[in-house]
Write a structure and sequence with these properties.
By secondary structure, the protein is mainly alpha-helical. It has one helix at residues 7-54.
Length: 55
């Protein structure tokens, strides 16, 4: 089915990313992505709490 990624496709994409960015850049990229997701979740949680206080 088009649009579905299986394990082999994901591994190939990770290998290509490793070749392009290198191990250190890939680790920094993963760290930055994780921090971004953490900040986004925190902002959403704070927004929900503010909305609850207003109602």
């Amino acid at each position: 089915m088009p649009g579905k990624l299986g394990l082999p496709e994901i591994l190939i994409l990770l290998a290509i990313a490793l070749l392009i960015f290198g191990p250190s850049k890939l680790a920094d990229l993963g760290k930055g992505l994780g921090e971004g997701i953490k900040n986004f979740k925190s902002a959403v949680k704070d927004g929900e709490q503010d909305a609850d206080k207003k109602t």
